[in-house]
Amino acid sequence: YQRRVHGYKDLDKMLDSIEIDAAIIATPTFLHKDVALKCIEKDIHLFIEKPVASTIEDGKTILKEAK
To answer: pLDDT (tens digit, 9 = 90+) per residue, 17-41?
Structure first.
């Protein structure tokens, strides 16, 4: 059983080129909000490492958009 693994340097290109059901966001915290919102826009389920966001407001934005 072989499976090819693709690496991406650009999140937008990755999200446009493959279909995924879920993503784990394990980037530097200051990027969590932007990555999460792009994934939510594509209806991708998320698991975000702690802390969820750099600020309470960013966390609230992610939560609001996810609902």
So the answer is: 999 999 999 999 999 999 999 999 9
CB 45 within 8 A of CB 23: yes
Residue (of 61, 18, 25, 31) closest to 45 by Cα position: 25
CA-CA distance, 55 to 60, in Å (whole number)?
Answer: 9
pTM: 0.87
Q: What is the mean pLDDT of the chain?
A: 94
Q: Are 34 and 58 within 8 A, CB to CB?
A: no
CB distance 65 to 46 below 8 Å: no
23's tokens: 């993503």
List Cβ neighbours of 13 (8 Å cut-off, separation of 6 or more): none
